[in-house]
Amino acid sequence: xxxPFYKMQGTGNDFIIINNMELKFPYETLVKLAKQIxxxxxxxxxxxxxxxxxxxxxxDFRMIFFNxxxxxxxxxGNGARCLARYAFENQLANEEMQIxxxxxxxxxxxxxxxxxxxxxxxxxxxxxxxxxNDFLVDYVELGDPGIPHLVVPYENLSITPLASIQALxxxxxxxxxxxxxANVNFYEVLDNQATKEGKHVLTIKAKGNNHTxxxxxxxxxxxxxxxxxxxxxxTVKTTGDVEISRDEIIDLLIENKEITANELSEVAEGKxxxxxxxxxxxxxNELIETNTKGYKVGKYLDxxxxxxxxxxxxxxxxxxxxxxxxxxxxxxxxxxxxKTKREYYIARSHNGKVDILETKYNEKTNSxxxxxxxxxxxxxxxxxxxxxxxxxxxxxxxETVKSESKKEVKKVKTGDNANIIGLMMxxxxxxxxxxxxxxKEN
Length: 442
Known about the structure:
- The chain has nine helices and 26 strands.
- It is an alpha+beta fold and 442 residues long.
- The protein has helices at residues 20-23, 27-37, 77-89, 166-173, 246-255, 261-268, 286-290, 397-414, 417-441; strands at 6-10, 13-19, 48-53, 61-67, 72-73, 96-101, 104-110, 116-119, 123-132, 135-142, 147-153, 183-187, 198-206, 213-221, 228-229, 232-239, 242-243, 272-281, 296-309, 312-315, 318-328, 340-350, 353-357, 360-362, 367-374, 377-386.
- The relative contact order is 0.06.
- Strand 15 and strand 16 form a beta hairpin.
């Protein structure tokens, strides 16, 4: 049986490519074919067999990648570039295309007749500072499930012959800690002096099976207070009575890939980016009203987070981590009754679910602070409770009688000095009269 194929290479990696949309081989046949056809000297020979197949998730085509031993891999950057050229030249895709892989959707672009560019999958699993013998290495997977890579710092790499580190690379690749093995990448930092705010260029030099040569990567260091970067600007602002931390929201948006290094580099060349958190009064939300029985709804709010790039808005509905938000309590919701205690809460309605968030009230500033990672419909809730008045104990009649009795006893017991003197004078007078009468009788 004759099987049409292409043989292509990308920076030293060579591949055999077949179109299974036409051949329609079952998976088991493809595994056997990879083992046979990839053997060097006795067959065509290559690093891998790449199969173009029918897309299943909206891409232009699907990529199935088999190593020379017949095992399937998630994706290969050099292979994807070769496959992109094959697809364009065989009318399977336009100059910009989406390739379905086990590691996720890969975006590819034709630059010219010989050069194609692919956007590698985002890192999905990062483990830092793993100890392998005397080497501290980092592990990263690109995509989900990811393509495993080990990143290894190596002194004097620029003057080290490649052959002298191949044994170490092989040991790392088949390290038993890594169930899937790994592609091994060595690096050396030659210059790391960029600390000034603004745009910088990182030059990366590489040599090895995947790539030999150098390329430049632009990035920017954000100013702490000033919004200007180069000829552009990057601004964080709020609308409404709300406060957020500029540094916190920038860190969160970078972590969520809502701000990329490429975008910041473009800002340095004149682009304007605004990050806006907007709080405004909203209409009644029936879902919040139904799910907050026992609370009073003070005001409904619409809290929106979006990114504006040169006048075009992009809404950001969720973050991977919570951010702290502080809003003012409307004047009409401030408690002015000294005999009433008022507790405030924040309710959030997002994707059909209502949550009551932990809320801190600052009486001095009349503000509410809470943490959230979702931006949609909110409400300020409150509960009022009457303060208990202090009760003065009353004296019963029985106790009054007792008290009066004690006073009377005390009066008899202690006596009155005036009464005693009067009695003594009366006694003396009586004795005088008696003596006087007796003498007269005599």
